[in-house]
Write a structure and sequence with these properties.
Elements (H helix, E strand, L loop, with lengths): L1 H18 L3 H11 L7 E4 L5 E3 L9 E5 L5 H12 L8 E6 L3 H10 L8 E5 L4 H6 L6 E5 L5 E6 L4 H7 L3
Parallel strand pairs: 3-4, 4-5
Antiparallel strand pairs: 1-2, 1-5, 3-6, 6-7
């Protein structure tokens, strides 16, 4: 069931755009549109509040980590972020997913993300992040510098040292 849910949410749109021959142009168009942090909304995984991207302050780099809680690569990335949190303590992480809130909640508690004050975990409940960034794979990370300017995009797994380097201004 999880595989079917994953295929419908993630792989089907990518497969359709690839089959139509417009995947590369769609991705290039999306990258042009995200040089400045675009507008999107996230629902906190516990449904306590909605975060609007316009509310994200300048002053420190931020990473938007689009993930699936059941994805082994996403779990590996999360472990790397946790293990290197000392080096990343000044970076704000926004973990977001289109998965079921229960799955996101399980992921949050399994990795004990509540112990890290620089991590927000939420749901892209209206697909506003997805539609703004058009991620072609998961994990997907968009790194913004302290002035909300795009520094780096990772499609698929990122080498942790590269991620650390891309968050330095």
């Amino acid at each position: 069931m999880q595989k079917i849910h994953y295929i419908i949410r993630i792989l089907l749109p990518v497969a359709i755009s690839t089959a139509a021959g417009c995947h590369a142009s769609t991705e290039n168009k999306a990258l042009k549109g995200i040089k400045e942090l675009p507008h999107f909304t996230l629902l906190a995984f516990d449904s306590s509040h909605i975060l609007n991207s316009e509310q994200i302050p300048t002053g420190s780099p931020c990473v938007f980590f689009y993930f699936d809680p059941t994805c082994e690569h996403c779990q590996k990335e999360t472990r790397g972020i946790i293990q290197h949190n000392r080096e990343l303590k000044n970076v704000r992480f926004y973990f977001l997913s289109n998965s079921d809130l229960k799955e996101i909640d399980s992921f949050y508690h399994y990795f004990r993300l509540d112990s890290l004050s620089n991590i927000f975990v939420g749901a892209d409940y209206q697909y506003t992040f997805f539609n703004a960034f058009l991620p072609s794979s998961i994990p997907y990370m968009a790194v913004y510098n302290s002035r909300k300017k795009l520094a780096k995009v990772y499609n698929g797994e990122a080498e942790i040292q590269s991620l650390i380097n891309s968050t330095r201004n």
